[in-house]
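For the sake of transparency, this paper describes our internal protein records without simplification. The remainder of this section carries one protein's record, kept here as part of the documentation:
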Amino acid sequence: MEPAIRDGEILHVKPVVVGELCKGDIVLFGDGLKFRAHRLVVVDRGRDVFITRGDAGTESDGTVCAAQLLGTVVAKEERTGTRTQTVQLCGKRARMRALVSSLRRSGSRALRSLPILRKARLLRQSILKKKDISGTPNWLPLLLTLLSAPAAVFGQVAIDSTTSIGQRVSGATPTITLAHTTVGTNLLLVVGVSINITNNTGATVTGVTYNTTALTLAGAHNDAGNTRRVEMWSLIAPALGVNNVIVTLSLPGGTGTLGVVVGAITFTGVDQTSPLRSFVSADGAAGTPASINVPSGSNEMVLDTLATGGNQTVTLGPSQTAQWNLQSLTNAANPDVRATGSTRAGASSVPMSETFNGTSNWSVGALSVRPLQADVGVSITANGVFFPQNVSYTITVTNSGPSTATGVTLTDTLAAGLTFVSSTPSQGTCAGTSPIICNLGTITSGSSATVIVVATPSAPGSYVDTATVTATQPDLNGGNNSATAVAFVESNACSNPAKNGNGGTLAGVINTYYPATANAAAGTTAI
């Protein structure tokens, strides 16, 4: 776009009325020891932010406030030979001119990006084609590219310990006891119970305890023929050490002898607020393999519990890891039960399967264990002021989930030349002057906390504030755990044209809009 103002042209300037400024207007403003007449590309009166750009330029000028705007350029005088005419520079036509310029610049940037995209494609092709003497791809260019990206740290569910036992039971309320050890952190205990209910179809588990603490039923399922039953129970944060798991059953009427297998498994690194997805189940008749699809997610772990005939040999599906596989009584025939418990890494949907060497009814239950992980990030906004006013930084800490973040700690470091005044958190407490340590406590998924830090500058200049945040949980994205912001402290203005009009006369004003030396003498009202 051709510039609206050229070297040597006389400009007509009126006092600034901030409420009337619009994108596309040309304004006169101070820029250090010089003056510029550039077009507004950003107008934010609420935050007192104005950004300008020259019509022939591709980059915006720095941000200015209303107090730096000396006037609005409304017209210019063009001289052709001995003839002079006045050309209006404000209004809809001028703003349309700015819009066209913006669109052209956007198109230009898009065209400039095409060679970059071509280079990226050629680099990828080069990597795939280029091989060293051993015949393996040369990945060094790609490796160097990837090293520029921040590494992400992910939380992952892991297995702490597993125990299992098989027994035959009878009577009205039999119990089964097994010792189980827990040693990790952020634990979840899951107990799977597999029962052959052929001799008493109403048999159920009435309760499970660990170190006398009751577990919660996650789900239970009978096969269609009421011959096999599975139940899964869970407990968040079980006691550490060696303690007894006690399973209490109910056999209505106290009749029959049942085969029962109990498997106990503790997971570590588990979300302590919402550790499990919903229980899912399936069953099948003799001659069909067991299979079930389990809703899950990245970094989760799926556990299934199977009950089938005691005389069966069970083979697990691909990628499944056996946690227990035993009969209620070794080498016994029906009505005993063969039970398996197996795990597999989580994904959006996880298929679990088991095949048998013979034919038997089966029932299977499964659930997915969620990891303890959160994406805690920090951002800062800073205000610009005139010296010697105080600067303030608004620091926002956000938890993008999925888990609740606990032990959230913010560390904020002021720039040299700033004297601490105050720190005000929306929750928790802050201490210190630089660094400032804020213990923000717990932030639930999708929530945030703020800290407002106020300081006094020692002189005009720019002051960089740096903040970092940590939490107890593993962080999904370490790239947003720190942030910086700059507060600009300007020398105090001689006057505020937004309130009082232009202040005084302008002596020796130089138009630097276009390569120029258009001077204005003191006392002139037009440039």
Notes: Helices lie at 92-129, 140-146, 497-500. The chain has three domains: 1-152+496-527, 158-369, 374-476. DSSP finds three helices and 36 strands in the chain.
